[in-house]
């Protein structure tokens, strides 16, 4: 459904380091740097980090990244903790979503709710 999305960040370099670390266990890498902008994806430029608009209100976003297995969710969470992120929810099953929903939630450097989720049993 989505081709790409732009996520406003206060510090492109710091956010780039954070996303480099936490997306690597999910098989997602940096695909392009275009001026200040940084993109991530598996086959294209799906997520773009863009400079926040000066003076604009910051709004929390929630982005969930697909993980191939539960070990990748665990590795995502470990990488986020090593990068200094706040853990919102450690990796676990979320049966209220569905029986196999296994996810972890962290805050990125700009306060966004970033999740890795595996739907496989």
TrEMBL record:
PROSITE patterns: VOC
A Pfam family recorded for this sequence: Glyoxalase
Residue stretches spanning the membrane: none
Highest taxon listed in the record's lineage: Bacteria
Domain VOC span(s) in chain numbering: 1-119
PANTHER family: GLYOXALASE FAMILY PROTEIN (AFU_ORTHOLOGUE AFUA_5G14830)
Protein name as it appears in the record: Glyoxalase
Species: Streptomyces poonensis
């Amino acid at each position: 459904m989505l081709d790409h999305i732009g996520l406003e960040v206060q510090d492109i370099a710091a956010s780039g380091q954070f996303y480099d670390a936490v997306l690597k266990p999910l098989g997602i890498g940096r695909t392009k740097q275009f001026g200040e902008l940084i993109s991530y994806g598996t086959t294209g430029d799906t997520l773009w980090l863009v400079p926040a608009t000066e003076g604009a209100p910051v709004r929390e976003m929630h982005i969930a990244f697909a993980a191939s297995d539960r070990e990748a969710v665990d590795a995502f969470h470990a990488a986020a903790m090593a990068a200094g992120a706040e853990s919102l929810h450690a990796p676990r099953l979320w049966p209220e979503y569905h029986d196999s929903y296994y996810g972890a939630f962290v805050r990125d450097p700009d306060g966004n709710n970033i999740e890795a989720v595996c739907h496989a049993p």
